[in-house]
Amino acid sequence: MNKIRVLIIDDSVLIRKILTEVLSSCPDIEVIGTAADPLIARDMIKQLNPDVLTLDIEMPHMDGITFLRNLMRLRPTPVVMISTLTEKGAEVTLEALALGAVDFVFKPKVDVVKTLNEYADDIIAKVKSAAKANVRNLDYRPVKTRDNEAAAVRHQTEAVAKPSQKSQVFSNKIIALGASTGGTEAIKVVAKSLPANTPPVFITQHLPAAFSESFVRHIDLVTEMTASIPKHGQLVEDGNIYVSPGDKHMQVVKENGKYVIHLNDGPPVNRHKPAVDVLFQSVAKCASTNAIAVLLTGMGSDGALGMKEMHDVGSLTVIQDEQSCVVWGMPGAAYKLGCTDYVVPLEEVANKILTLVKQLKPN
């Protein structure tokens, strides 16, 4: 088996050195070069034809977003972004994912050597996953670089119109959705086709806490539903999309005949917090035949066992097909367990959900 050939693009000598050491420690990966800025990288890509790039965002001569936009238009290549764990970093990283980057890793502000080495396994796994990613399935979108103020203006001017007044409706139906790698864009594709009166949608996407608010704003921008990060003990209502905060598991429980959201600060499950399995398993217990489970693109197998539990108690289950996934890890794992009722392309997931909602049976 050929090694995965990686080109590292970062203006920091230290980051280039550490990433080279981390990635070279894996026998399946070969670092074929490093570049201090995108202009140098552009020539190296032509000469070396790497399988995967790691790309910093803030660099001299050309920023990482501009470089990524040009790369995905002219020479689509799997890219893992090097991102800062801040609100501004979250906005720019989500923009990079919208442009076609596969995943991201954090650039620590302090104790760089220790932190990056602690996350060595995660960095290696993301590069390996990126090498298999279906980047050509991501549409090229000419998104302009935005700072927080520009993002707020866009949110106000381009957001999908919401109903002026929403009556409080406590649903007895539940849609639970999980995703990881490639999921930030896939979720937006689904959400944009869900009308305002859709039963509540619970989303667990593998993202850090610093990214949660930005991610919710991006979802709320495209959907008629109302997207938010819920509070512990919040009652569940129709027309809402509830997104797990990046540092807690989200569960649904039934209290006094109504669904209530619980946020769980327990340990990671499947190395993730929030974890899709935690959400799905809670829905299996409280909603059974009155719920739908959906798994979209993502690395690993989180959500597969939870989907099986939902399937076993009579929930309907849907997964994104392999051709439209960036990474078919999570949906593929569920498919192998034999617990998937429907396998559909990403663009058809929302319609499938809306069709199946009519078939749900109160438990």
TrEMBL record:
Record localization: Cytoplasm
Residue ranges constituting the Response regulatory domain according to the UniProt record: 5-122
GO molecular function: phosphorelay response regulator activity; protein-glutamate methylesterase activity; protein-glutamine glutaminase activity
Keywords, alphabetical: Chemotaxis, Cytoplasm, Hydrolase, Phosphoprotein
Top-rank lineage group of the source organism: Bacteria
Modified residues (4-aspartylphosphate): D56
Name of this protein: Protein-glutamate methylesterase/protein-glutamine glutaminase
Cross-referenced Gene3D superfamilies: 3.40.50.2300, Methylesterase CheB, C-terminal domain
SUPFAM superfamilies associated with the record: CheY-like, Methylesterase CheB, C-terminal domain
Domain characteristics, as noted in the entry: Contains a C-terminal catalytic domain, and an N-terminal region which modulates catalytic activity.
Taxonomy of the source species: Bacteria, Pseudomonadati, Pseudomonadota, Gammaproteobacteria, Methylococcales
Gene Ontology BP terms: chemotaxis
Reactions this protein catalyses: L-glutaminyl-[protein] + H2O = L-glutamyl-[protein] + NH4(+); [protein]-L-glutamate 5-O-methyl ester + H2O = L-glutamyl-[protein] + methanol + H(+)
Domain CheB-type methylesterase: from-to ranges: 168-360
Annotated family: Belongs to the CheB family.
Organism this protein belongs to: Methylocucumis oryzae
Active-site feature positions: S180, H206, D302
